[in-house]
Each structure stands twice: as C-alpha cells, then as structure tokens.
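Q: I'm building a small set of examples for a reading group on sequence design. Run inverse folding on the following structure and report the sequence directly after it, with nothing in between.
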C-alpha cells in the first residue's frame, strides 16, 4: 500500500514539494501525484510505494521544522469516528486550573495538573488531590468558566466537518461534565464523557464520582464508539495532548498529538505543533471546498 505525505504550514514555503521528494527519494520512493488541499496552506504527495512512515515523517520534520507533517497509508484516510480530548486540545488551557483560580489555589493545582499530563504521577491520585482543593467552590462558578472558555483554532471546523461527513464525534475528558456539556454543544460533538464533581448545598464537596475517567476509560470509549459506529479502530481518529490520551492515540488508526506533552508526542508520528486543528482534516485528505467555514 502506497504512502501519502501531507504537509500543512502557515503558509507552506515555496518549493516544499522538492524537499519532500528528496526525502522520499532517500527511502527509494518517489511522488507519483500531488494535490493542493488548501492554497498556500496544505498539500499532499502520493508516493509510488510503501515505506517506513514513522522514519520518513521524522526526517521530513527535521528538514521542514515549521511544517506539520503526516505520512500515512494512502488507503482508509477518512475516519468514521473522532475521539477528542478537551483541555489543552479542543480548548486552550486546563479548566481545573481555572476553577482553582476562582479559589486562589491555581498555583498549587496547576503544578499537579502539569505533572499529571506529563505522566509523571498517577492520574487518579492527582485528580483526587486537586478536586479536594476545589472543596467549597460555588458550583455555578463552573458554569461561568465553561461560558468563557477559549477554543482552539480549528476545533469547531474539525468536529463539524467530520460530523457533516458522517463521523461519530465524541468528546472524552478527564475534566468535568458541567464543562464538557457546554463544549459538546458549542463544537458539535454527538456525545461527551467526563468526570462528575459531587455537589452539596450548591458547593463542591471536594470529591469526584468513581470510577473516574482516566486513560483506560478513554481507550474503552474509543472501542465502544467504534463498535457502535460499526467500524474498526483503524477507522478512528483520536487526538489529545497529555499522557492520559496515550492509549487511545496509540490504538486509533489515526492518532494525533496536538501541541502535546513529550509523553504523548513520543507515542505517535502524527503531530500538530505549528498550525491548527484543521490540519487533522487535511491529514485525512479533506480539501478546503469540503471543509465548512466554521471560524472557531
Ligand atoms: Mg488535555
């Protein structure tokens, strides 16, 4: 099965296809066709044969340091399921840190969040510890923060375009359901799954309902969603930024690390580091004419 090189830049430099052809040539491969996916922003080159996609992508990234690159099998590129992480993937920043800020505890909480997302400490223990620090917070504060989130560029376009082409889109988060519900509606996901913070007399008790949504829950949700959609894991796209996204990103046919912590970036050869979430559509071969004009 032949390979396709997809390159996304802001913008793409002149002569980029020559650089890609030289790298492919070093692997004994040559381009047989090329296609513009977005003028000045995204293009693909189809190669004449199969090869080591990961190794080719690594060399291309070294040759083209500001370009997002995917080297993928030419067949089966359009995915029928999207599983997306929320914090630092679909939205900018970590909502648990913003909740803590409302109590003046952001520094203590965000230090733990960072270590958990890097995979340095156990996810559930880190979640419990931080949720305990939120005890006493007025629960409506969560709704206020959910209403003021900054969405990642291209997030809505990614979800709505895949949904419009028949994909089942699920938001799966180690964050909280009062936030994911808002994000699901705003971005057009079919379903969301996240942790539930216990509330008593309108205030957070400092505990999350068990079992918590962790890395294994995300993987299980990927499998369930694929089964429901009647497809295999090869037909799924999973995207995230943190260590707890690693199992689903590794299992999905197209696993993408988005501006990811090293623990996740090392797990996949498909990364978005320089452009925006629309790159996940170009990687699947969507062209601008097929992509909705959602601005978020
Ligand atoms: Mg995240």
């Amino acid at each position: 099965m032949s390979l396709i090189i997809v390159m996304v830049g802001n913008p793409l430099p002149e002569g980029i296809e020559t650089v890609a052809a030289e790298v492919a040539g070093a692997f004994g491969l040559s381009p047989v066709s090329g296609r513009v996916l977005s003028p000045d922003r995204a293009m693909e080159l189809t190669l004449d044969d199969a090869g080591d996609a990961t190794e080719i992508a690594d060399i291309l990234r070294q040759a083209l340091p500001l370009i997002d690159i995917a080297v993928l099998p030419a067949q089966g590129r359009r995915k029928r399921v999207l599983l997306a992480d929320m914090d630092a993937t679909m939205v900018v920043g970590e909502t648990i840190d913003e909740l803590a800020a409302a109590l003046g505890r952001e520094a203590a909480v965000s230090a733990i969040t960072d270590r958990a997302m890097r995979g340095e400490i156990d996810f559930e223990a880190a979640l419990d510890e931080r949720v305990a620090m939120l005890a006493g917070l007025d629960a409506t504060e969560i709704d206020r923060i959910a209403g003021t989130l900054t969405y990642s560029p291209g997030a809505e376009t990614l979800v709505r375009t895949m949904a419009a082409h028949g994909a089942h889109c699920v938001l799966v988060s180690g964050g909280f359901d009062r936030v994911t519900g808002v994000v699901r509606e705003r971005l057009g996901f079919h379903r969301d799954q996240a942790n539930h913070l216990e509330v008593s007399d309108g205030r957070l008790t400092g505990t999350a309902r068990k079992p918590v949504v962790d890395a294994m829950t995300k993987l299980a949700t990927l499998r369930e969603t694929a089964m429901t959609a009647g497809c295999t894991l090869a037909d799924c796209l999973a995207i995230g930024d943190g260590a707890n996204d690693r199992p689903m990103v590794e299992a999905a046919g197209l696993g993408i690390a988005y501006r990811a912590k090293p623990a996740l970036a090392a797990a996949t050869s498909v990364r978005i580091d320089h452009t925006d979430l629309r790159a996940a559509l170009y990687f699947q071969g969507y062209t601008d004419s097929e992509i909705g004009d959602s601005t978020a």
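The pocket of magnesium ion is lined by residues 85, 87-89, 240-242 (CB under 6 Å).
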